[in-house]
Design brief:
single chain, 3 helices, Phage_Integrase-like_Recomb
C-alpha cells in the first residue's frame, strides 16, 4: 500500500522542508509547476513502455476508475470520491 511506503514519507518530508504547505499540490515537476493531466499520463505511459508493456489501454479514464475503485475499497466516503 502506498501510504505505508517509506518513499511516500520521504517525499512528503522533502516537500515540506522545501516550503510546501498543506494546501500546495502534492506532485510537482522539476520546475515547481503542478503536474497537468497530459504530462502525468505521458510519464505513466513512458514507464509502462519501459517495462516492455503496451500502454495503449492506459488513459485518463482508466486511471480515474482505478483510483475511485481503490478509494472505495479502503472506505473513503462516497462523497469524497469524484469520477
Amino acid at each position: 500500500m502506498v501510504a505505508q511506503s517509506n518513499l511516500c514519507w520521504i517525499y512528503l518530508h522533502l516537500r515540506q522542508k522545501g516550503g510546501a504547505g498543506k494546501s500546495d499540490p502534492l506532485f510537482i515537476n522539476s520546475k515547481g509547476m503542478t503536474l497537468n493531466r497530459t504530462y502525468f499520463i505521458q510519464i505513466i505511459k513512458e514507464i509502462i513502455e519501459s517495462l516492455g508493456l503496451l500502454s495503449d489501454g492506459y488513459n485518463g479514464p482508466s486511471f480515474r476508475i482505478g483510483a475511485a475503485t481503490t478509494a472505495a475499497k479502503v472506505n473513503v466516503p462516497d462523497h469524497l470520491i469524484k469520477l
